[in-house]
Amino acid sequence: MGKYEDLHQLVGSFEADFRKFYEKQNKAAGTRVRKHMGELKKFAQQVRQEVQEIKLKMKDEGK
User: φ and ψ at 13, to 5 degrees?
Assistant: First the structure.
């Protein structure tokens, strides 16, 4: 479950900026939140691609 742990760690690293933006209305933190969400989008796309490749490999192996 390495990918899940990577996701959990990635999202956890965003917490401080989310709090600064949503609780303290810090504009600079808002910019960082947007950057973090872009990182999350890239990570999600990589995971989606990996899952698809694994599924295709499983299909080819007859599982």
Answer: -70, -15
| CA atoms within a 13 Å half-sphere pointing along the CA-CB vector of 18 | 8
Report residue 41 as tokens.
């989008």
H-run or E-run covering 28: helix 27-60
Indicate the pTM of the whole model: 0.83
CA distances from 12 to 5, 34, 50, 53, 59 (A): 10, 15, 22, 27, 35
**Beta-carbon-side half-sphere exposure of residue 14 (alpha carbons within 13 Å):** 19
User: Over the stretch 30-57, which tens digit does the pLDDT of each residue have?
Assistant: 999 999 999 999 999 999 999 999 999 9
Spatial distance between the Cα atoms of 48 and 53, rounded to a whole number of angstroms? 9
